[in-house]
TrEMBL record:
Keywords: Cell membrane, Membrane, Transmembrane, Transmembrane helix. PANTHER family: GENERAL SECRETION PATHWAY PROTEIN, TYPE II SECRETION SYSTEM PROTEIN F-RELATED. The chain crosses the membrane at residues 153-174, 186-204, 322-343. This is Type II secretion system F family protein. Residues 53-166, 226-345 form the Type II secretion system protein GspF domain. Signal peptide: none annotated. The keyword Membrane applies. Its main location: membrane.
Length: 350
């Protein structure tokens, strides 16, 4: 279902509805005829903006404001255009009785939606605050991974830029002799800069973890188990937490494993029988076996998440070593190319 921008009595409202016709009928039933309704495409929350939103809301709740007051205050005081308009949309939908976590999920991209679903909107104020803190912890961890990787590639990227700039300037001064070199070096500089900009922007927004999830099972399982553990902390039953998890992952095998686990638990099978063995390595496998006896699945989930996180840290460690080295190797190629193009006339004279 899409979002709509509704102008009524000089005020703009943002509403979520099945169709424009249904929304118009709703306002007509309220006796409102002079309205202007248009499709609206919001700028969805990513990891970074969602963390900023949760941090601001958590701070306002700590200062004694109610949730709707905190969101309304943020919509008026924030200079961030994404926060400003999205907070207005949340306020307008809250007035219609929609659940906070449902509204937030509609304003977040697919990767961020599970962290929105962690929010407890139908419990006590303390439950809501605790669930927001849990989401903040999860998002902070994801952004920390990306920041760590970004730090490792910054210097090699800078060296590549310097080498390409030198090569480009030399081609510019020598363009009368070899105009084709100027075109080639300009194209190379623009393409390399464009690729680097995309990588840096994605890393700043915390999307590095998405790339790792595509290729590495430990990253997928770390996210899954951390979300399950966080859902349990917010009071959700395990089966309810598992039910919506396939929507938040694109990996086909992991989706099948989640669905198998869910339906196996629904049939009354034990934890050890239902969960895939690859989810619970080393010590966590013993905790899972014990959970089949005493029902303490939270300890098994925590240990499994910690073990997979250690494996992720090892991947990141080697990535920090290998990727900068590869970038420096590529940068060295650009530097050698630049130096050869500069000194080639001198070598030819000698």
């Amino acid at each position: 279902m899409p979002w709509f921008s509704v102008k009524l009595d000089g005020t703009t409202y943002y509403r979520y509805a099945a169709s424009e016709r249904r929304l118009l009928l709703h306002y007509v039933s309220l006796g409102q005829w002079n309205i202007d309704c248009r499709r609206y495409t919001p700028r969805l929350f990513n990891y970074k903006t969602l963390l900023l939103f949760f941090t601001e809301i958590n701070s306002a709740l700590q200062n004694g404001l109610q949730l709707n007051e905190a969101i309304h205050s943020l919509s008026e005081s924030s200079s961030n255009p994404i926060l400003n308009k999205n907070c207005l949309a949340i306020c307008h939908e809250l007035h219609t009785g929609e659940a906070f976590n449902t509204i937030l999920s509609r304003l977040a991209n697919q990767r961020c939606q599970p962290y929105c679903q962690l929010i407890v909107s139908d419990g006590s104020r303390e439950d809501c605050e605790q669930s927001i803190k849990t989401s903040i912890e999860q998002l902070t961890s994801l952004l920390a991974w990306s920041a760590k990787l970004l730090k490792g590639i910054t210097y090699p990227f800078f060296i590549m830029q310097v080498a390409l700039a030198i090569n480009l300037l030399h081609s510019l001064f020598a363009s009368t002799e070899a105009p084709s070199n100027l075109l080639l070096n300009t194209s190379m500089y623009l393409i390399t800069s464009f690729v680097q900009a995309i990588i840096v922007i994605n890393f700043i927004n915390g999307n590095a973890s998405n790339w790792f999830e595509t290729f590495n099972a430990s990253f997928r399982l770390t996210k899954l188990l951390a979300l399950l553990n966080a859902s349990r902390k917010t009071g959700k039953p395990l089966q309810q937490a598992l039910y919506k998890m396939p929507l938040h992952f694109n990996h086909a095998t992991l989706k099948e494993e989640i669905l198998f686990t869910y339906y196996s638990l629904q049939l009354g099978n034990s934890y050890q029988t239902s969960f895939p063995t690859s989810w619970f390595p080393k010590e966590s496998a013993l905790a899972l076996d014990a959970a089949s006896q005493n029902g303490d699945i939270d300890r098994a989930l925590t240990l499994a998440a910690q073990e997979h996180e250690r494996q992720c840290q090892q991947v990141i460690y080697w990535f920090e070593k290998i990727i900068p080295a590869c970038c420096l190797f590529i940068a060295a190629g650009f530097v050698v190319s630049a130096l050869l193009s500069i000194y080639q006339p001198l070598l030819a004279l000698s």
